[in-house]
Amino acid sequence: xxxxxxxxxxxxxxxxxxxxxxxxxxxxxxxxxxxxxxxxxxxxxxxxxxxxxxxxxxxxxxxxxxxxxxxxxx
Length: 74
What we know:
Blueprint: H1 11-22, H2 26-34, H3 38-46, H4 53-64, H5 69-72
Helix pairs in contact: 1-2, 1-3, 1-4, 2-3
């Protein structure tokens, strides 16, 4: 039996998880890691834009598997 899919991540959940991963400057640091603008991350966290599924999957995987941000940088 396959695991049940997680509910879509909302902006508040994303922001809480980014705090765990990146600390105080979470949105800017996460945007740099992704190669996108900090405004996009702010819009996800505020709920202005829906959190994309692949972003939610990345953040959840980083937390679930204890992947440090520096491990993802080339």
